[in-house]
Amino acid sequence: MRLFRHYDAIPPECRGGVVALGNFDGFHKGHQEVVATAAREAELLGAPLWVLTTEPHPRSFFQPDAPPFRLSSLRTKAHMLDTFGVENLLILTFDAALAGMLAQDFVLKVLIGGLGLRQAVVGYDYRFGKSRGGGVDVLRHMAEMEDFGVSVVAPVTENGNGPIVYSSSAVREALTRGEIKRATEVLGHWWLIDGHVFKGDQRGRTIGFPTANLDLGELIRPAFGVYAVRAAVPDGPQAGVYDGVANIGRRPTFGKSDVTLEIHLFDFAGDLYDRIISAEVVEFIRPERKFSGIDELKAQIAEDCRAARRILVDPAYARDRFALPRFIP
Fold first, then answer.
1. What's the rounded mean pLDDT across residues 108-123?
2. What distance in Å separates the CA atoms of residue 132 and residue 69, rounded to the nearest whole number?
3. Residue 160: its pLDDT value, please?
């Protein structure tokens, strides 16, 4: 996948494509249908396939002090789009200039002037331009004037007609309740958390359960507690995917207040400090709680490890059941 950051620097051979527009936070099943529709259109037209998104998320720009809400980091989102089969990704910086650009100017400057698009593909609720002034109706009107096509993807629901629309909001609600199975079903893949491993208090190492600690950054805070996970170490001598158990929360036993992800990898020996790893969140085991002392905590961690191992060998939680999808038109 080719990645671009400026709409005015697109190579001639990449212009004239089919462009899927949206933020694609979490890249759930609804997002996947938008990009899949764009892929089918691109194949029919013999045109390049594009996804256009923005960074930071517009909500972060307009509400910088709002609680963390993102489902995926930019790195994870790009990885998922690449895995899905996207050929070209344009990431525009969402700053004051882009926020103040009128919808019509966005079409003329970015989509036509920059990308020379032949077809735009959007979800039914897509909004763009200053004050979210543009929507499907504006896009269709501009398409008639400027001679490009528009495809609008209807809401994607369970079984085609279920009561719940696949959406980022539905995933967020499930995660905050600790309903990992529900979140996974809406996403169509395991929820991924990635980041640099930082050096923590190293208490886990002293009690026999060393952990890799990740800062959640702008990612949403799920229900605090213990989870069964699979963690991917992408490179180096320990490269591979490891089963593990993780705690997401404030660590009340030690009087902490910051929220971190601590992952204990099974059957792993090595140093992961400053490395980037990603974790697939597979299932919720129990809520976070405060323990009376180290011995009680160690006993509970041992039980958590046994619970996580049972979950991770269960065929219902097999990794390929919710592997990152790939669309081939």
1. 98
2. 20
3. 52
